[in-house]
């Protein structure tokens, strides 16, 4: 095995719930362009901050990828911890946060957090396939314990009064939802209903945010669509919108506060 393959094999053994994400894992430079295009007006961040302020607190970015959001969180948080199982992405996250004593990047996964009980105040998880009904990830592979195993581990590390904020796509609104629908095998309405019901049963509150992706060029837009939906779907959409450099996109935020629902206490004991 090569060194990179050895490192990946070790990570897979340590974090069996990790499922390789082909969009960011296979195309981190394009995903970086996509991150810069997301929500230029800051509506999602404002909603996250409103639901669970992190000023002066300890914040975990679960599945932090290349660490795109870490330095922004560190402007206000007392401590920021990025957790990432993919060793290649984690190396990028470490490389972008040198000389920042309040930022740390650690190996881990939703079901294997290297953190003490009740040690963090806020956990963020963006587009978290590992916290969802059945925890079905890219390629259809299920995690070892399903979404409840990851949720139980998050609840273990949250301090009293802490919160988990999960950012998901809104499958019901916006041009990106239309693209997802064109690419989907299962009705997006059914997917949305299943996700909503799963979080509702676990005591989460649900919050909708409407926003946009806004790219510097059409080439950047095309590249981002190319890693998020099948090529034929992307080509069809681009042909129908020949001058577009942006598209509308909705998000759904789920907020879980452990003290808010006795059912979550039972998840801690899993």
Which key features would you list for this structure?
7 strands; about 270 residues; alpha/beta; 7-stranded mixed β-sheet; about 40% helix; 12 helices
Task: Write up this protein.
The protein is α/β, with parallel strands linked by helices and 270 residues long. The protein is built from 12 helices and 7 strands. The protein has helices at 3-14, 22-26, 28-37, 43-51, 70-74, 87-95, 146-157, 175-183, 188-201, 218-228, 231-240, 262-268, and strands at 58-62, 79-83, 103-106, 120-126, 158-169, 205-214, 246-256. α6 (87-95) links the parallel β2 (79-83) and β3. α3 crosses α10 (218-228), α7 crosses α12 (262-268) and α10 (218-228) packs antiparallel against α11. The longest helix is centred in the C-terminal third of the chain and has 14 residues, at 188-201. The N and C termini lie far apart (37 Å).
List the helices and strands and how they pair.
Elements lengths: L2 H12 L7 H5 L1 H10 L5 H9 L6 E5 L7 H5 L4 E5 L3 H9 L7 E4 L13 E7 L19 H12 E12 L5 H9 L4 H14 L3 E10 L3 H11 L2 H10 L5 E11 L5 H7 L2
Parallel strand pairs: 1-2, 1-4, 2-3, 4-5
Antiparallel strand pairs: 5-7, 6-7
Helix pairs in contact: 3-10, 7-12, 10-11
Unreliable stretches: 135-145
Query: Which structural class do the helices and strands define?
Result: alpha/beta
- Tell me the strand percentage band: 15-25%
The value of Rg in angstroms is 18 Å
Mean pLDDT: 91
Q: Could you estimate the helical fraction of the residues in percent?
A: 40-55%
How far is it from the N-terminal to the C-terminal residue, by CA?
37 Å
DSSP E strands, number:
7
Largest sheet, order of strands side by side?
3-2-1-4-5-7-6
- Major sheet: 7 strands, mixed
Q: Which overall shape is indicated by the principal axes computed on the Cα atoms?
A: globular
Continuous helix count: 12
Following the backbone from N to C, one meets helices and strands in this order, namely HHHHEHEHEEHEHHEHHEH
């Amino acid at each position: 095995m090569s060194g990179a393959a050895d490192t990946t094999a070790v990570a897979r053994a340590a974090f069996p719930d990790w499922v390789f994400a082909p969009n960011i894992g296979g195309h981190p430079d394009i995903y970086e362009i996509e991150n810069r295009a997301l929500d230029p007006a800051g509506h999602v961040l404002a909603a996250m901050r409103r639901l669970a302020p992190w000023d002066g607190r300890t914040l975990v970015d679960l599945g932090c990828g290349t660490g795109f959001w870490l330095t922004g969180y560190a402007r206000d948080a007392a401590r920021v911890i990025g957790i990432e199982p993919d060793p290649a992405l984690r190396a990028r996250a470490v490389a972008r946060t040198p000389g920042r004593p309040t930022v740390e990047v650690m190996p881990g996964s939703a079901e294997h957090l290297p953190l003490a009980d009740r040690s963090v105040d806020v956990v963020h998880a963006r587009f978290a396939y590992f916290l969802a009904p059945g925890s079905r990830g890219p390629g259809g592979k299920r995690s070892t314990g399903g979404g409840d195993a990851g949720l139980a581990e998050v609840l273990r590390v949250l301090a009293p009064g802490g919160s988990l904020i999960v950012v998901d796509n809104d499958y019901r609104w916006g041009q990106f939802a239309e693209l997802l629908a064109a690419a989907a095998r299962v009705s997006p309405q059914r997917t949305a209903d299943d996700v909503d019901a799963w979080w509702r049963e676990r005591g989460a509150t649900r919050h909708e945010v409407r926003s946009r992706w806004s790219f510097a060029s059409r080439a950047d837009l095309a590249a981002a669509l190319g890693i998020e939906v099948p090529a034929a779907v992307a080509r069809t959409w681009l042909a129908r919108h020949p001058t577009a450099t942006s598209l509308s996109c909705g998000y759904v935020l789920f907020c879980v506060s452990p003290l808010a629902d006795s059912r979550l206490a039972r998840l801690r004991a899993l």
